[in-house]
Amino acid sequence: MKFELFVSFRYLKAKRKQAFLSLITIISVAGVAIGVMTLITVLGVMSGFENDLKEKILGTNAHLRVLHPFQGIENYRTMASQIEQTAGVTATTPFIYTEAMLSTEIGVSGVILLGIDPQTAPQVTNLAQTLSQGILEDLLPRQIPESDPRAKSFPGIIIGKELGKNLGVLKGDEVTVISPLGEQTPMGTVPRMKKFQVVGMFDSGMYEYDAKWTYISIPAAQQFFQMGDVVTGIEVKVDDAYKAYAIAQDVRHRLGNHYQVRDWMEMNKNLFSALRLEKITMFIILILIVLVAAFGIISILIMIVMEKTSDIAILKTMGARAESIMGIFMIDGLVIGVAGALLGTMGGILLGWNIETVAAWIERLFNITVFPPEIYYIDRIPFHIRLEDILVINLITILISFLATLFPAWQASRLDPAEALRYG
User: Fold this and answer.
1) 111: closest CA among 170, 58, 59, 159?
2) Cα distance between the two ends of the chain
3) Residue of 123, 130, 128 whose CA lies nearest to 94
4) Is 193 exposed, middle or buried (0-12, 13-18, 19+ CB in 10 A)?
5) What is the pLDDT of residues 115-132, one digit of tens each?
6) Could you say which DSSP state residue 94 is in?
């Protein structure tokens, strides 16, 4: 192989009269590098957005939810103790989940109404950290004499900042919760309504939650919906979010199959499936850039073969085998591909690490906003590239570069020395 390496590197070094070949080689390397750099940067940003989304979902939701498919859970305190004995479980909290309508003087909006335990909920979710106003303990009834002006006349409710904007509600305002389950009276079925006082507002960073989710205490929810001492289910926090599925199986085995245990990935399956499909599609589209660069490799090798026809004939006359001739040009193509992959990897990582600086420069240059915060709900452009992504990108790039060398190298190995020397 030393012979093939020596000759292949000599062919990549252009002489003065072959400066055009040298330029084409540089362009081919640059084409591969740009393709790899684009792949790494785009996939890194997409992975960053996916991780950011996971953090926001896990901040508002528990890792596991234990539900009864047909009714609420009565013995939830005993069940919570059983669940906490499962390996990997760190905390539990009961919850009530239902849909309702929120009415103010400005308008009405459908909401998800969650009854929570303000004392145990912070151990399972990061809801307390997302509060921009108020604290979770404000949901609990305070022991203040009714004569005190600070006494609350209504139970507390915490709403999202977007819901507050839509309904024109601020902390301290009163809202009316309307249950879709009517109440039987002598006059017929009438909606069940109750006034609540806004004691806090949260900002989860996700519009769907901030515009729809509301929180009240479990006793207030049980009283309003006339549930008795029953909850919808139990939320569970585990020590490793990515082992939630396996821990969910253990919890289900402990409680019995008549209970439903869902992990956070299953609850957001459609969202993560869409993100994964989008990432795969983008990867396939961007691979086309590398394929275009591969045509540059084919072009430079064909030009080298045409330029070195006489040299190939002499090498064959001196005893070089067809496999050796083919190896010379395959090495040339691989050198171009590997060089482009390495340069592209370094460029992609550097660009990803400085993507916010680049985005700020583009915004100033073209007077645009790359990622409007009111649409994307982000204050930065996340970048997270995994080692396995880099390895896959480089392996595919090198494989495409190798395949691009086959035809020119095969053509070179088939040259007839007599014909080449006669017309060369």
Assistant:
1) 159
2) 27
3) 123
4) middle
5) 999 989 999 988 888 888
6) E
